[in-house]
């Protein structure tokens, strides 16, 4: 929003420089992005001149040699404007003046004739876009009068970033009220306080009619009729004001609608009444595929939610966004129908986005304006139509209203103000601040009964909003005391789960893996690329209602796909090896969508569930996962010093090292994941609870992502961290007594898992067995069909003595007995 300084001061003069006011506005919640300048950077060197003579240039057909009185004498100025003539009062730039682009004007010779200045056109002063002729001023002006007294030159312009809730600040008068509130400077009377006299014949209903088929999308539609309208250029003050505010002057009627919109924040639209058959307007929604050509000369195809203003022949404008060419005001217009309507903000925003069409009007309507603002704009525009167009206002206003919201009334409790702000603000000050902002205020004991004005109806809805208004006008930066938050107990520490997550991430980095953060969104086809069957829960992704793209229209159900995306991208760019891990959430539907919605849900669509109206959105679980993937040689920096191929056993070692750092015990069993290589995979359990998978990826999956053989794992963090003992470790005295090391080979049925073998060995070894680690697996004909040999390394140690052979032998026999219980025999 561009707010010219002279226009703002017309309604409230703060008595300070623009820079000081900008600082104060920023500190009270109105963001001023910058202070620009409209027109030349300085007003020096620009004066009013009188053309005394204008003769044809002796050597140029399109130039005229003018004698101009600049108030201090005559000077010669060569001018190329076709309309320059003797007797005119004109705007003159003298040598030394700085033009709007910053260029310094100098004396020059044009085809041999010296020129001492420049007679200016409107665009050369940036008060319009007309360059066909010079700017002709009022004859009553004296030669030599500083031009800045006639036209705002070097006009400061506040460029305000209006927050969506403050739709009132989309109008200059709303900004002026804000300045009045924070500075206490007087506020001029409301410009809509009085209507002009209605001197036209008959009644507005004799000329026009309005029918609204969609009152929920058009809460109010007002229209006034003007006759005897003269179309022409706007007066200089209006054109200059619009140009400084960023609007292109067009003609007096169109300029009035733009001026009033910029003043009141309420958009308007003018129809050539003679181009509206029978003066009848209809507000309806478009038919599917209906088309119309808007004022920007673009034919647009509409959908069934687009609201149109139509005559009996078809659409004349897209409601709240842009008018059409059918009934556009032109130079021949003599009768005008002025529309000031109120529209459903959500619908305007949707249509604007759907059409890719945004206008000054739509940017205001989409924030939701109050219907009461319509007649304010009608009053201001009517006065200007009469004054600037010579129009006659026909008595009566066509007003089709579906219902105007009752004024919002709130109670502002004194105790709540002091309790929330931590400081006392007197009732008199609270009243003064709110009344300056346009609120109605009445004392109710120590409290206040507050009525919210129409232009803040959708912004201030709660008591706390009133407290915010009082606080910011009072001065948060100046008066609000600095206090520390009241807390009970420790602040800022990490929870145990957070500490364990960080330990897990640090461990994987120490093991040679790089952490990545992938998208939570993914391709809906990812489950198929992972070979997941349709009945797998991971195939039913949560579908986004408004995705960034088709490739990111579903929430991921595994972290594996995200890791494969990153690995594929890095390998395609020359990486020789990739070792990645990610800790993040996946999103799983806990029940299939599509069940009939109960009555209490009303058939509404969950924006994330991607289901149709009338269906029940399924609940979504968000388990946190820790996953790793390696492609190419795995360099494990901390636990081995050599390169190791990426295979099942390499990733199993990484996962076991991670579990050891957390103090958790893992279990492994055969897996049947469709994306894993058969026979080179395992299901992972933690304390008997299924936790995830581990293994080499299936070649068909690797082919989908164009990677070589890869291996990885994906573990639910909840069971892993729940079983962790890290942080609860107890110490053990270091003993100087030696350990006894022995190896043990067990022959047993092939279906017995190595984890069961190790568990039996630890149970049999008792307190003397400190460790048992599997280091070899052998299968061969000499063992017999369906048999395998598992070798373990044993460490026996006592804390208080050196073990004897008899003690170790006894422990070994106990181990042997436990192994027999699971069908194992020692291999001699």
How large is the radius of gyration? 41 Å
* Count of helical regions: 21
CA-based shape: elongated
Biggest β-sheet: strands ordered side by side in the sheet: 26-29-32-38-37-36-35
Secondary structure: helix percent: 25-40%
Give the helix/strand class: alpha+beta
Portion of residues in beta strands equals 25-35%
- Number of β-strand runs: 42
End-to-end separation in angstroms reads: 91 Å
The average pLDDT value, as a whole number, equals 89
Largest sheet: 7 strands, mixed
Poorly predicted segments: 592-616, 636-641
Oligomer: single chain
Characterization of the model:
With 828 residues, the chain is an alpha+beta fold. The protein has 21 helices and 42 strands. A hairpin with a 2-residue loop joins β36 (676-686) and β37 (689-697). α5 (236-244) crosses α6 and α11 crosses α12.
């Amino acid at each position: 929003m561009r707010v010219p300084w002279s226009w703002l001061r017309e309604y409230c003069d703060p008595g300070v420089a623009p820079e000081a006011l900008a600082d104060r506005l920023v500190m009270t919640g109105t963001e001023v992005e910058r202070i620009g300048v409209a027109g030349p950077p300085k007003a020096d060197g620009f004066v009013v001149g009188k053309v005394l003579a204008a003769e044809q240039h002796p050597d140029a057909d399109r130039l005229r040699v003018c004698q101009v009185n600049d108030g201090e004498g005559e000077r010669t100025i060569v001018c190329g404007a076709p309309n320059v003539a003797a007797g005119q009062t004109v705007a003159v730039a003298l040598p030394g003046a700085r033009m709007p682009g910053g260029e310094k004007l100098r004396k020059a010779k044009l085809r041999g004739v010296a020129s001492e200045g420049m007679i200016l056109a409107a665009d050369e002063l940036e008060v319009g876009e007309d360059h066909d002729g010079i700017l002709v001023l009022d004859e009553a002006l004296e030669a030599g009068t500083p031009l800045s007294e006639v036209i705002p030159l070097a006009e400061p312009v506040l460029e305000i970033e209006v927050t969506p809730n403050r739709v009132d600040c989309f109008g200059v008068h709303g900004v002026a009220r804000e300045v009045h509130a924070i500075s206490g400077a007087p506020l001029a009377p409301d410009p809509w306080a009085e209507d002009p006299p209605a001197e036209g014949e008959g009644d507005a209903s004799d000329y026009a009619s309005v029918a609204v088929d969609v009152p929920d999308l058009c809460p109010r539609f007002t229209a006034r009729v003007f006759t005897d309208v003269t179309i022409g250029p706007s007066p200089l003050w209006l054109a200059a004001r619009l140009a400084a505010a960023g609007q292109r002057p067009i003609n007096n009627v169109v300029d009035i609608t733009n001026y009033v919109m910029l003043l009141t924040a309420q958009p308007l639209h003018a129809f050539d009444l003679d181009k509206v058959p029978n003066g009848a307007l209809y507000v309806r929604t478009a038919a599917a595929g209906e088309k119309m050509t808007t004022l920007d000369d673009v034919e647009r195809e509409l959908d069934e939610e687009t609201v149109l203003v139509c005559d009996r022949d078809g659409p004349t404008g897209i409601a709240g966004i842009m008018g059409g060419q059918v009934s556009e005001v032109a130079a021949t217009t003599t009768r005008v129908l002025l529309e000031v309507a109120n529209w459903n903000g959500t619908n305007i925003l949707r249509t604007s986005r759907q059409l890719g069409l945004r206008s000054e009007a739509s940017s205001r309507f989409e924030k939701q304006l109050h219907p009461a603002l319509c007649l304010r704009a009608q009053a201001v525009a009517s006065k200007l139509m009469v004054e600037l167009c010579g129009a006659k206002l026909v008595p009566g206003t066509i007003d089709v209203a579906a219902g105007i919201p009752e004024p919002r009334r709130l109670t502002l409790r004194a105790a709540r103000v002091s309790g929330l702000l931590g400081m006392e603000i007197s009732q008199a000050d609270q009243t003064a601040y709110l009344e300056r902002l346009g609120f109605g205020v009445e004392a109710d004991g120590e409290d206040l009964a507050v009525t919210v004005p129409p232009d803040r109806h959708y912004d201030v809805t709660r008591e706390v909003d009133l407290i915010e208004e009082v606080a910011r006008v009072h001065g948060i930066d100046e008066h609000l005391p600095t206090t520390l938050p009241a807390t009970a107990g420790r602040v800022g520490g990490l929870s145990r789960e957070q500490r364990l997550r960080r330990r897990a991430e640090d461990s994987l980095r120490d093991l040679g893996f790089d952490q990545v953060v992938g998208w939570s969104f993914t391709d809906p086809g990812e489950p198929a690329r992972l070979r997941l069957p349709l009945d797998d829960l991971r195939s039913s992704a949560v579908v986004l209602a408004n995705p960034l793209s088709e490739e990111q229209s579903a929430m991921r159900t595994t972290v594996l796909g995200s890791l494969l995306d990153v690995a594929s991208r890095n390998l395609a760019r020359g990486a020789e090896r990739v070792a990645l891990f990610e800790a993040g959430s996946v999103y799983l539907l806990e029940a299939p969508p599509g069940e009939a919605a109960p009555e209490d849900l009303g058939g509404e669509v969950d924006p994330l569930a991607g289901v149709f109206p009338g269906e029940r959105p399924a609940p979504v679980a968000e388990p946190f996962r820790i996953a790793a993937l390696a492609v190419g040689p795995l360099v494990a920096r901390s636990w081995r010093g050599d390169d190791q191929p990426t295979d099942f056993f390499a990733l199993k070692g990484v996962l076991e090292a991670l579990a050891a750092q957390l103090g958790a015990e893992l279990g492994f069993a055969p897996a049947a994941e469709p994306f894993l290589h058969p026979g080179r995979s395992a299901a992972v359990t933690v304390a008997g609870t299924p936790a995830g998978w581990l293994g080499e990826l299936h070649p068909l999956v690797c082919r989908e992502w164009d990677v070589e053989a890869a291996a990885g794992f994906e573990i639910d963090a909840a069971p892993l961290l729940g079983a962790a003992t890290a942080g609860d470790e107890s110490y053990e005295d270091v003993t100087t007594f030696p350990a006894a090391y022995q190896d043990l080979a067990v022959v047993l049925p092939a279906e017995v898992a190595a984890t069961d073998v190790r568990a039996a060995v630890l149970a049999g070894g008792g307190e003397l067995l400190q460790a048992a680690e599997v280091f070899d697996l052998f299968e061969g004909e000499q063992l017999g069909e369906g048999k395998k040999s598992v070798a373990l390394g044993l460490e026996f140690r006592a804390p208080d003595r050196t073990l004897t052979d008899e003690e170790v032998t006894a422990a070994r026999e106990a181990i042997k007995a436990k192994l027999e219980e699971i069908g194992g025999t020692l291999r001699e």
